[in-house]
Amino acid sequence: MSFLKPHIVISSGEPAGIGLDLCVLLSEKTFPAFITVVADKNALSHRAYQLDKVITFHENKLIEHKGDHSLSVYHIAAPEPIKAGALNSNNNSYVFDVLNFALDGCLNKSFDALVTAPINKSIINESQPFTGHTEYIAHYTHAKNEVMLLTSKSMKVALVTTHVPISQVSSLITQEKFEETLKTIHRDLIHRFKINNPTIFVAGLNPHAGENGTLGLEEIDILIPVIHKLKLEGMLIEGPLPADTLFTEKYIKKADCFLAMYHDQGLAVFKHANFGLGVNVTLGLPIIRTSVDHGTAIDLAGKGTIDPNSFYSAIDLAIDLAQKSHS
């Protein structure tokens, strides 16, 4: 029996943000998939009213997503009323209930892929230590070497370190961490994205990639030995190269993926070139997970002015990766 249409689950994210808006707009968009939104149905209905949209909800019913102003919804009630633009830490447990339900469904194969709407780190941290979606999902799914990847039609950018202070970056980039990151990227580019013999371009940590040790020794002590080792094993890796000239046309044409050492080194460039079009993918997981490339936009919630294209792109990629996983 062939695999035709995947079942995508969407965790609706921070309820005071634009996650609910995105789910409402989703009802008007056609996708070749079954899609289930996990959210408080009453909050979804109220957000639809705010956006002047009329939606039919199919609770706990699997339907093909046809863009006919309807949504398949798994209802999880929030402890307190949800108001667009008003963060409420008392609803933090709801945010995790939504996400955990979606993750459990992916782990038990009820869903083929997860698309996450954004959550707010600051409000979550009022209840428990929380560094980010990527790290939480990796811990929940028992992944050992998760990697954040931002992808668009023009480039893929992965990170060695993610949501950590810049003062900690250097100490976190060990030979073991760097090697496992490269191996995870290489493996998932082949098995998830179906790219044969992927080429990875690596940024140096220091200005001018250390300039032969004059501006730092991390390239000599950590990056170059690992790259040399993995190239001998057959991986196609270039670098470390100066980050200030890495994301230029001559490299973009050759690279299947760029690897940056820290969050803003890679994502500032990526979002400048692709904001609203990029998709966040977590590599190294036992499940497929994609997400938008932006935050909760609390100030835009319920106002009808958001651009949903990154959300749609995340769903398109989730569908594509799910189909490729069955090919």
Automatic annotation (TrEMBL):
Signal peptide: none
GO molecular function, one term: 4-hydroxythreonine-4-phosphate dehydrogenase activity
Enzymatic class: oxidoreductase
Lineage: Bacteria, Pseudomonadati, Pseudomonadota, Betaproteobacteria, Nitrosomonadales
UniProt entry keywords in alphabetical sequence: Metal-binding, NAD, Oxidoreductase
Domain of life: Bacteria
Pfam families: PdxA
Claim: Metal-binding is one of the keywords in the record: yes
Name this protein carries in UniProt: 4-hydroxythreonine-4-phosphate dehydrogenase PdxA
GO biological process: pyridoxal phosphate biosynthetic process; pyridoxine biosynthetic process
E.C. no: 1.1.1.262
InterPro entries in alphabetical order: PdxA_fam
